[in-house]
Amino acid sequence: MREVDPRRRVPRTDALLADPALAAAAVTLGRDLVKAAVVRAQDRARRGELTPEQVRDAALADLPSRTPRAVLNATGVVLHTNLGRAPLAPSAVDALVAAAGNTDVELDLRTGRRARRGREALDALAAAVPDAGAVHVVNNGAAALALAATALAAGREIVVSRGELVEIGDGFRLPDLLASTGARLREVGTTNRTTRADYEAVIGEYTGFVLKVHPSNFVVTGFTSAVPVAELATLGVPVVVDIGSGLLAPDPLLPAEPDAATTLRGGAHLVTASGDKLLGGPQAGLLLGDADLVHRLRRHPLARALRVDKLTLAALAATLYAPTTPTRDALHADPVRLRARVERLRDRLGEDGCKAEVVPSAAVVGGGGAPGVELDSWALSLPERYAEPLRTGRPAILGRVLHGRLLLDLRAVPEVADDRVRAAVLSVGD
Ligand SMILES: *Cc1c(COP(=O)(O)O)cnc(C)c1O
Question: What terms describe the molecular function in GO for this protein (predicted)?
Fold first, then answer.
């Protein structure tokens, strides 16, 4: 008997659309999109690229993913820009969900009148930093700087030290951003040294403000000097400080990291920062400072283009009220406890015949701040061949490969996820 041509055995469209997984996908993605994927998979089978048995899975694999892939951050980099920086606190996640529908974001339900947009978030920020006369929130740290430059220095000069003209990452250069607002950059000093006299020499009628930028991703050491905020504040022009990381108050663990409260108390007129770095919240740009400056920013037409949505405002308010955040917990995790977690993981993997080792690791804060700071940490060490299956699994687990080993540093992995790490490692097998 002749074998039936496999191309004749390609499953029919209606049979495929009735498959539970494809039918479930049609509920969220729509039938047209799922059908198109089915037709593409059938065509591939007719061309002999797939067996008839592979058609269903190929159609499923061809569907667009509805949500971003969850990743467990075992890199030892607490704030990993490629992983979306700060993971949100549970209360911030709840707030996001609550804000997804219609909310009172801009309405006072008692009076029925329009109210200040995002007042919970603004009140929480003002309460967290009483030194600020007023606060405002925009889309991200770069937007905060762009708004300050546009509103306070367009057509005028921003005086900035050459040592602070930084590239934040992915080609984002602060000087380019500032120049794009129509302000002129007036560079003073040199890469390693800038003095008060350098600033004094250029300050004049064209000065919009003096900008001080925290170099958040590198350190300059050796023969250096910079002018502290307190001294810049006596130059007679507004001083804007980009602290970057969003620490609102000092953190003893990160003594070199500037914070909003101390910077304002030191005399800064305006502080800008990100919401999703050390603050541990959603992507946002924070502006804190003298009430009159903040009001000028808020009233500037550009402010409308940079305004944050209700989801961000809800998550930011919840973050500011949360007793702690995953970012803070990861930063302050006790190395003794981390070691015990990694040893327990190793022992339990050992019971299932998987041999892993426990090794010390040096974690870092990451692009979000504190360059040069190393945090004592512990990692599970596995053969390098585990890296790819773990990275492409669900959840994806991202570690770091070093000298032929995959290191899973648990500092930024929530403890509740240890069982999932164990299951994922076991599923890789031999
Ligand atoms: C991260 C950073 C920025 C950019 O902030 P985004 O929120 O990423 O836009 C600007 N300045 C400094 C000093 C930073 O560290």
Answer: L-seryl-tRNA(Sec) selenium transferase activity
From ligand 1's centre to the CA of 258, what distance in Å?
13
Domains in the chain (CATH in brackets) are 6-61 (no CATH), 71-82+328-428 (3.90.1150.180), 90-323 (3.40.640.10)
**13 HSE (CA, 13 A, CB side):** 10
Quote the ligand 1 centre to 139 CA distance (angstroms): 11
Is residue 31 within 8 Å of 37, Cβ to Cβ? Answer: no
Quick one: which of 165, 218, 173 has its CA closest to 194? 165
- Which tens digit of pLDDT belongs to each residue from 144-203? 999 999 999 999 999 999 888 877 766 678 889 999 999 999 999 887 788 899 999 999
Query: What are the DSSP E strand ranges found in 328-373?
Result: 357-366
Does residue 212 have its Cβ closer than 6 Å to ligand 1? no
Distance 329 CA to ligand 1 centre (A): 22
**Residue 214 Cα: closest atom of ligand 1:** 13
Q: Is the beta carbon of 211 within 6 A of some atom in ligand 1?
A: no
Cα(294) to centroid(ligand 1), Å: 19
Average confidence (pLDDT) over 365-388? 90
Give every CB contact of residue 299 below 8 A, 6+ residues apart in sequence: none
- CB 171: neighbour CB atoms within 10 A? 7
